[in-house]
Amino acid sequence: MVQGSAFLQQVSAKQDADQFRTEHWQGSFAEYLDLVRERPEVTRTAYQRLYDMVIADGQYAVEGSKNMVRYKFFDDPHNNGADAIFGLTRTLMELVNVFKSAALGYGTERRVLLLHGPVGSSKSTIARLLKRGLQRYSRTDEGALFTFGWKEADGSITWDPMNGEPLQLVPASERASVCSYLNQGRGEHDFQVEIRKDVCPLSRWYFQERLKEAQGDWTKVVESVVVKRLFLSEQDRIGIGTFQPKDEKNQDSTELTGDINYRKIAEYGTESDPRAFNFDGEFNVANRGMIEFIEVLKLDVAFLYDLLGASQEHKIKPKKFAQTDIDTVIIGHTNEPEYRKLQSNEFMEALRDRTIKIDVPYVTTLEEEIKIYEKDYNPKRVRGKHIAPHTLEVAAMWALLTRLEQPKHHGLTLVQKMKLYNGKSLPGFTTENVRQLRREAKHEGLEGISPRYVQDKISNALVVNTTATSLNPFMVLNELEAGLKHHSLIGNEELREHYRQLISVVKDEYTDAVKNEVQRAIAADEDALKRLCGNYIDNVKAYTQREKVKNKFTGEDEEPDERLMRAIEEKIDIPESRKDDFRREIMNYIGALAIDGKTFDYRTNERLQKALEMKLFEDQKDTIKLTSLVSQVVDQDTQAKIDIVKSRLIRDYGYNDESATDVLQYVASIFARGDAKRDS
Questions:
Q1: Phi and psi for 60 in degrees, rounded to 5?
Q2: CA dist 621 → 93, 122, 627, 641 (Å)
Q3: Whole-number pLDDT of residue 314
């Protein structure tokens, strides 16, 4: 066994001292000017840095969507997708466009970004991704930024409490010439260094004191300045602030803007001395980075005034203290009831005018909603219990149906609308029709059931069903339905009943899906399918060419088997009036393949494959005696056939032994009911 000291030596050997020194660089103001000439991006504003951070991870086109792109940053690639945002492509594009506009200085940098949406719609996750991204990006070469401090006589350094940009030390009268020097050799499309705003009151005090000593020569003043690399950190309260409103009695605006340190007044003699001030408000802390306001519209009015100045003027005004410049991205989030209060409050007009609202709705695409649950409920996270196929899908389907608005299109059901949104094609609906459906539903995704509720109920189902080795869809649907009576966010019984009815709709969809799976598992005999297909094609060929078919048993020529052909075609709803067209299409397709030297394979024609599988299932269903599963009386020969079907369900569809048995018994009970109805 490795001893502790030896282990520590192994760890030490992995440390990169050169990298540490590079990351924790310190230098003079003159050295910083050289660094800026080489890498001007270190002087970026908070918005510019935030935008570059998002863009740095790249982007990719969204399949099937015109002019839609996904930014990889929101897939959380640096954290193995732990906080990945699923869906919401349009929302995230809108957000990044605001960042871009602000980075270019087009005006949005003087606004509060308000993420607006229902509970559990990823507003906090977006803010968390941005904060964590800034922390990581500030530690890379591309995201580097710097701050400064003042050398004291005893050799110590007093760092700027607001982590200001060192170039802010350049007096206003000299800024144009300094920028001209720093931008030498760069084209108009290259990044241009600009010096914005002023240092904080404390650094201004240091500057003025040392300017007196230097007889007005500011170049001598900056000789006592030390520049260092700055790392943003929410935990250390450097460059990233978070503010959450408390109850009204305990709210104090100094939490945002800092406060006078009364113990130091005796030392410095006056409240206005910047050395007697604590620059520890969230706005002070968030300088050079971003500040997140949780439930921003619950803020007291006094706080909102601070917010107005911070966004529009990029200044904060603490009590009994000088105005202070800030450079920070302000992001707040709120829900629909709070936002309605903002709209109806005439005293909030100034805030409304300085706010950019970005709707963050629930996901309305089924495959994206499924991904939300797969992230938490997968074999790695859920050990010792198998999650049966369709379990997460039915939960996602129900959640989605609660969020969709009833379609205005006559004859289109809510389920069909959900399938269209998920990329499925329906007769008579083009991509433009689907876009129109989305445009008509202006509040879609802003109401309905949140993913949190669904996650809670899936967790419940996992814990409650202790004897089962597999979690199946009915366990989850039962939990979802049972929880509705206690759901605090459902306002009335009518809505509750609507959600219950949607559970029945989802059960019907699930039933269709598993019936199809069992049918395909029973009909998964490749040789039998090929024989059936060959028989069908022989008959279709004879029919279209007005020929006879040779009976392989008797050797006699016979008329094409119309009964067989129609039995297959009816499975995919080919009417009698269309049978000739369909048969000619099949033969033309086979002929075109033959010209290219290719052989026809039924699997290349999805409709024909489905028809053949359904016909074979019908033929084999009775030989397997699936309905005998319900009575539990199964002979040895039938059991062997059922075991083959079960093994196919396990191999091809992701079931385990228990869930495969459950689904076979469920489908058997459906067929048993169907047989009973036919007998009666």
A1: -150, 155
A2: 51, 47, 9, 10
A3: 93
